[in-house]
Amino acid sequence: MPLIRKRRAAEASPSPPPMRRRSSPSPSNVSSGNEGYDDENTANDGTQGNGANYEQMVKKLVRLALASEYSRQPIRRSDITAKVMAPNTGRQFKHIFEQANDHLRSTFGCEMTELPQKEKVTISQKRAAQRTQTQNPLSSSSKSYILTSTIPASLRTPTILPPPAVPTSASESAYVGLYTFILALIYISPGQSIPESRLEKQLKRMNADNYVLSGEKTEKVLKKMEKEGYILKVRERDGGGEETVDYM
């Protein structure tokens, strides 16, 4: 009898609930969670990287503009694309250009201004320009820029804006004086064009026909002015085959 009671007591006691086995997360779930975290971080890093790249391009454009002004060369759109713009950022050119101009105005007192297209003076140049205009009517931009001063005219005095000291202030002042004289002769000539013979005559009257400027004679100075865009040397042949040379 006691055995039967123990058996019934054991049957009457409630059985413990079955233990549930804790399932470990599957590799796919772990990877999906990590991917979401990584995607968020990547998105944040991309935004920060784009901002850093944007500022870097603005700084590069400012440096390119100052270097081009130092060497008296125009700032070409092709140079900006090759040296400043990152890949696949062509649509940001306008914003980067405006931001760089803001830096130039606030820090250096100058800004990038687009140059007009070169004037077509010879018959062949005019015909080529007409063909280009017919094929691409929107090609009216020169895609070249120079730095122009934004300092008020009342402050543009030699005391505030002295001649550049490279290579020396004396040689730079002499060069500015010589090309200002030549440009004035061209400007007051009929049609703002002066024949080479007349220019040589005027330089001789000023004792500047064989003038030596920083080791360069007047002939080399004229070539330097042409290279830097101050003047334009035009050669043409008339119906008789005689060549005429004018400076514009």
Report on the structure:
This protein has 248 residues and is mostly helical. It has helices at residues 2-12, 27-70, 77-83, 93-108, 123-135, 169-188, 196-205, 218-227, and strands at residues 75-76, 110-114, 144-149, 194-195, 212-213, 216-217, 233-237, 243-247. A three-stranded antiparallel beta sheet has the order 1-3-2. A three-stranded antiparallel beta sheet has the order 4-8-7. The radius of gyration is 37 Å and the shape is globular. Residues 27-49 have low confidence and may be disordered.
The proportion of residues in beta strands is: 5-15%
Question: How far is the N terminus from the C terminus?
Answer: 134 Å
**Main β-sheet, in a few words?**
3 strands, antiparallel
Oligomeric state of the chains? single chain
Tally of helical runs? 8
Features:
single chain; 248 residues; mainly alpha; three-stranded antiparallel sheet; globular
Brief rundown of the structure:
The chain has helices at 2-12, 27-70, 77-83, 93-108, 123-135, 169-188, 196-205, 218-227; strands at 75-76, 110-114, 144-149, 194-195, 212-213, 216-217, 233-237, 243-247. It is mainly α and 248 residues long.
